[in-house]
């Protein structure tokens, strides 16, 4: 029945702050921005991959403490950690290596949602 995950939606308190984080700091491309029913929306993502949909709004359906995280793969965890230091983005957990083939860290976005950066070794 299901064939592909299209997007993951986060309701954010300030779209510009979120775009500065995901696009400006992490380099996730903005695919499009638009308004729908008075709400500012941005779709971000790498071509042909699952998109991250950011919807600006005052109400939050998913709370940061809900235990949900967004995971992205990086080429090198060491390089990612160095870039995060230069961007003043703190690592909240990790590095964690649950097996010989995977290492990851967690950071948070401007609304407190966890973002996992993982390297497959």
From TrEMBL:
Its EC number is 4.4.1.5. Keywords: Lyase. Pfam families: Glyoxalase. Residues 4-120 form the VOC domain. SUPFAM superfamilies: Glyoxalase/Bleomycin resistance protein/Dihydroxybiphenyl dioxygenase. PROSITE patterns: VOC (PS51819). GO terms for molecular function: lactoylglutathione lyase activity. This is Lactoylglutathione lyase. It comes from the Bacteria. It is an enzyme of class 4 (lyase).
